[in-house]
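User: I'm putting together notes for a lab meeting next week and I want to include a structural view of one of the chains we've been expressing. I don't have a solved structure, so I'd like a prediction I can at least talk through. The sequence is below, exactly as it appears in our construct file.
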Amino acid sequence: MEKDTLTVSQVNSYIKRKLVMDPKLKNIYIEGEISNYSTSFNGHSYFTLKDEKTQIDAVMFKNNKDRFLKFEPKDGMHVIVKGSINVYEKNGKYQLYATKILEEGTGILYEKFEELKKRLSKEGLFDDSHKKMIPKYPKRIGVVTAESGAAVRDIITTIKRKYPPCEILVFPTLVQGDQAPAQIVRQIKRAQNYDLDTLIVGRGGGSIEDLWSFNEEIVAREIYACEIPVISAVGHEIDFTISDFVADKRAPTPTAAADFAVPDITEVKNKISNLNEKVNRNIKDKITHYRTTLDHISQKQVLKNPESIYEIKGMHLDNLVGRLTVSSQNIITENKSKLFKIKSSIILKNPEEITKRKKDAYLKNLNKLEVLNPLLTLKRGYSIAKIGDKVISSSKDVKKGDELDIEFNDGTINTRVM
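Assistant: Thanks for the context. Below is the predicted structure for the 418-residue chain, given as structure tokens.
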């Protein structure tokens, strides 16, 4: 056996690894015609995808069918298949592992719709927190749509019928075709210069291709950025576009958008009438209340006899004056008594007697101090013994070897205890 010889399994495994590792074959779109389409008992579908020159076998597993397949494939149907190329090692056959099958045209548009919807939703463009309130009583409404057609007629007719006071400004634009998205964006920008309360953006019904302008990203972002509250009115009730998700309000039809945009004039008149009755009733109630209050006040004694106010105040003043007079007299009497006592005191009658008494007391205290003076004790022959500054008052305070200072009247001697 040759050294580099491989088994069939090794070759199939090697080819499988090569195909799986190729990024171009991991996520691929292949266009072709379905033939030999069949579904096994376990729900997996097998078919051939071919063109005029060649073909490739394909399989779509049940879990992908349940999640992504929106129609029933049939032989002869022209489709676009999304998937990856792989090898079934058992028979060495490569085939297309399909994850999605899209009908040509509408299928690829639907795929683009879902991709953009997912991306803008992730960015937050659909969040309710960004939605603006639609004014209840608009004075001026703008409409971005085709200049002629059922949509603009339905919107104008509905608004004029429901709420005639509202002014309508039409900003004409193409609503389908390659040039339509740019025109729609331009007219939305232009509408923001006209002091509008609400802006309706939309068109009548049609196929997904007809409505596609309202699935373009530039239109969606312009609606989201618009400073005016926007009502999206594209197609029929079953039609949904990206514009519906980014707008502040989605209407199922252009006529429904007009219904949302304005109130019913009859209801407004009824509401005004009810408010007018309520205001008149409140005014009448207020008048009755204040008339009753006025009647009550007018019956008060003070209004019937206003002089009584001054009579009462006069009596109160007389009472205060009487109390003030008595208090003043009491203060004068008390102060006269104090003055009499002061005049009768010995200080005013004989001030020299006071001085003599103070002098006698002073001399008496001086004599006491002289008696206690230690210097007089020394003059009488006594002495004072000290150890340092401490006076010795007992022999017990002295021990052998202490130096004593003995103070006499005429000097001090130093001695030691033997």
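A couple of points you could mention at the meeting. The chain is about 45% helix and 20% strand. The chain has a mean pLDDT of 85.

User: Perfect, that's what I needed.
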